[in-house]
Amino acid sequence: MKSFTYERANSPADAAAAAARHADAKFIAGGTNLLDLMKLEIETPAHLIDVNGLALDKIESMPDGGLKIGALVRNTDLAADKRVRRDYGVLSRALLAGASGQLRNMATTAGNLLQRTRCPYFYDTNQPCNKRRPGSGCAAIGGFNRQHAVVGASEACIATHPSDMAVAMRTLDAVVETVRPDGATRTIPIAEFHHLPGNTPHVETALSQGELITAVTLPKPIGGTHIYRKVRDRASYAFALVSVAAIVQRDGTGRVALGGVAHKPWRIESADAQLPRGAKAVAAQLFAGAKPTRQNAFKLSLAERTLGAVLTEAKG
Amino acid sequence: MKFETPATSNPIDQLKVIGKPADRVDGPLKTTGRAPYAYERHDVVSNPAYGYIVGSAIAKGRIGGIDSAAAKAAPGVRAIVTADNAGKLGKGERNAAKLLGGPEIEHYHQAIALVVADTFEQARAAAELLRVDYVKADGAAFDLAAVKDTGQPKPLFGGPADTARGDFSGAFAAAPVRFDATYTTPDQAHAMMEPHASIAVWNGDKLTLWTSNQMIDWGVGDVAKTLGIPKENVRLVSSFIGGGFGGKLFLRSDALLAALGARAVGRPVKVALQRPLMFNNTTHRPATIQRIRIGADRDGRITAIGHEEWCGNLPGGRPEGAVSQTRLLYAGANRMTATRLAALDLAEGNAMRAPGEASGMMALEIAIDEMAEKLGIDPIEFRIRNDTQIDPERPDRPFSQRQLTECFRTGAERFGWSKRDPQPGRARDGRWKIGIGTAAAFRNNLLVKSAARVRLDGNGMVTVETDMTDIGTGSYTIIAQTAAEMMGVPLEKVVVRLGDSSFPVSSGSGGQFGGNNSTAGVYAACVKLREAIAQKVGFNSAEAEFADGEVRAGNRRVPLAQAAADGALTAEDGIEYGDLDKKYQQSTFGAHFVEVGVDVATAEIRVRRMLAVCAAGRILNPKTARSQIIGAMTMGVGAALMEEMVVDKRAGFFVNHDLAGYEVPVHADIPHQDMIFLDETDPISSPMKAKGVAELGICGVAAAVANAVYNATGVRVRDYPITLDKLLEQMPDVG
Question: Which overall architecture, per CATH, does domain B385-444+585-728 show?
């Protein structure tokens, strides 16, 4: 672990400003991902800005009927919130499908969105990885890539985003609120928050240098049946091979996003439109242009079958 | 004590303490965090420096040079140990590759340097500053399937590379029903919770290592041999071990590098292997390719059985031995086995829980299920029909005890086997397709000499000392029970001290031989102590009885404490074995039953319930023995459904080298386990009349899971682990 300096920020704007002052600064909240990566020298920040004291840990009901989730709300608290359980069940279920109780107690809403990939080559500093060392190559292509992306990947990177929470938020059309070093705030729709790898897989989100997430807002509830189905090799504490977040209305319309298949939560609005026609039609839209590897081609069929099971469940 | 004839009645048969489900005597220490593990011996070592191991970034080649200038200049750094400056080093008798590599590199993550600094963080930070110039070698072999045909015959632990009886080829060709299939098992990791860890202290030319090691005497020998110092200058202490599973049978890099580091800085040095190194730096259960051929008559009697194995290892490594159970498990006049070992440049393959049998049973017990189906015979009935009470290769050798059939009958009754639908793919519970499978469990009982020292003091306390280890198995407890039974005292009057090379040499913990042999060694020492006590109080030792804290003869009774009133009485002895294991085949048996659900849409496989019925001699402590079995069953589920170290065949290493990437079962994977020990004593095994249980529990589990998956889905998977992607294409269409 590289030596680093540390400070506690007093306000979100101060935190962002501090981040702009230091080259290689990182915000630290729950630390469930960043600390591990620092110990392995995958992340090597020179400066840490502790944002835990910023009082961004409230869940507030909004006048428009939506919900504003502070960036520091712990995954456990978010999953247990009765408004979330009542109106945004897909989010609560996705959170509880992720990690372990201990990790969820520490992990924050913003940190969850910013998780790095679990690609094993990203984790081995002896190996090339364009995400970790831009330009070094991608060892996962042609290597062990059973877990990797089947769609939206590039010649530079086939990693997936590991979050469950983000997949649910994608179906909910969540909006990420941020503050920048100059104090200006902005909102980023979750659809635009995570990037595809392209030629710059190390650039994973729309955040600019020093920009701090302050909250995630959920639009007012849209009803429907909320399902999160996570498929994995063991029953708990494993990353998704494929996951499906779905909100299905009585008339069969709805929204669906997939985890475990791409560099970001995978939702295509034109696929939503196919929901009344069934899983095959939805999958055809979602995976148009998919380029699986030999090892992960099964994810296409797995995703379609899981979608089918979810739609059947939604019908009751 | 030489054990040459079957045991007759002895004090252990009283079963006042032995055979009782005593709580672990070390339980309170462990549950309150006061059991000191090797890395945490703050009680005996102050001011240690910390070592951080640097693993090779290439699998095969050599180091052109190491630029350590920046690392040396980093804060707190005391030394950087490499092959260049470590002095002349030998290689342990039980190590295939060098524990400190360089300039030659033999496998990925082979240790090439130890950075020693005042704090762990400083050592880790400095380690990242080492600049190593690697020269990769051409022509390395990383793909077992690609090199298998270059494999050479290689003898196993228990016998020759090839075995044959009768005319296998002829009988197989002539058999009315024939079965021939090939199975694969992947490389697996021990993945124990406590990594390899050591603290080294030099006092002049004498070295003490607090370490985590299953086999103290082997460790002492290989430390001495590697460092080129006399064995008597080495002391190993391993009081508590946080899991080993065979991964800690041998001297490994943590202990050697701690010793070298401590020598370099003239100060205690502690080293724990970093988790990401645990998969490529250490040993592992090596992958196998296995072909099984079975011929039978239409009544289901096996006439020919053949089992061939291909595996790979580093030069000097051994084969996995996956064919060994096939020599003994089922009858059949014509039989063969063959073992071929190819050179591979992956980390060393070596013992992991039930080495040989665990891998072999994964294949054999699917093959038996497949053959039974081909014959149209119930798989339990097929096994019972081919049960044997004699060694099928040597009919003059009976099994000492063999209750395989009873295990199956008892298990079938308890598990509800008769309710199983033999037609696969039909049973359903909501979204789950349901299947039930079974498999035999089989593991040999090994005899290893084992010694102990027992002391009676003036307070009537009995202290046992032996270099036996407790790797979580319950050794402390069953040894205390043995001494309590022998000396006629309650458990609270016994103190057990283990894992110190200054104590008499025991069997150690491995091959499920620790329980029976180490307690038999304690038995022998106690017999001697009883004689000393009887003599001290003037009794004829043959007549003396030990009970309730007294020694009694006729109508005289003397409290034990009184016998040691003017000085402790000490006795040391061990158990050594004659040829009873040549005259008799000593093995342990069981039957596994597993019910799985397979999600009809996703093909996710989840175990719903499990049962093991075991016959393994006298059970010294049903509670700790049960823990061994259910732990092994859990490990078997891992082998069946998820455990695989994936080889990167380009760079030559196990890719998923952490506990996120190498999945083992979690609680949610193991909903309900049940196990039964059949009543058995085996007087041919030892005076304890016990046998091993620890590894029996894993043998066959994976095949029982595989057979249950087949019963649920009709899909036969012959390549472990059985993951959903291997089923998906053959699952029925869903909405």
Answer: 2-Layer Sandwich (3.30)
d(CA B730, CA A222): 38
pLDDT tens per residue, range B513-567: 999 999 999 999 999 999 999 999 999 988 999 999 999 999 999 999 999 999 9
Integer Cα distance of B371 and B385 in angstroms: 13
Residue A185, both tokens: 């705030």
Asked if domains B11-35+448-576 and B385-444+585-728 share a fold, the reply is yes
Domain spans in chain B, listed from the N-terminal domain onward: 11-35+448-576, 385-444+585-728
Looking at A42-140, list the stretches that DSSP marks H as alpha helix, in order from N- to C-terminal side. Answer: 75-80, 82-87, 89-96, 101-106, 109-113
Question: Of B593, B585, B616, B624, which Cα lies nearest the Cα of B700?
Answer: B593
**Facing residue for B655 by CB, picked from A144, A306, A308:** A144
Mention every residue, 6+ apart, whose C-beta is less than 8 A from residue B48. B199, B267, B268, B269, B270
Q: What is the pLDDT of residue B734?
A: 81
Q: Are B656 and A144 within 8 A, CB to CB?
A: yes
* CATH placement of domain B11-35+448-576: 3.30.365.10
What does the pLDDT look like over B334-380, one tens digit per residue? 999 999 999 999 999 999 999 999 999 999 999 999 999 999 999 99
Sequence-ordered list of residues with C-beta below 8 angstroms from that of B118, at least 6 positions apart, any chain: B49, B50, B76, B78
ipTM for the assembly: 0.97
Per the confidence metrics, is the pTM higher than 0.90? yes
Contact: B735, A238; criterion CB under 8 Å = no
Render B257-303 in DSSP notation, one character per residue. Answer: HHHHHHHHHTS-EEEE--GGGTTTTS-BBPPEEEEEEEEE-TTS-EE
Q: What is the mean pLDDT of chain B?
A: 97
Q: Which residues contact B649 (CB under 8 A, 6 or more apart)?
A: B142, B143
Report the residue of B725, B728, B730 to disrupt the A interface, i.e. the one with the largest count of A CBs within 10 Å: B725
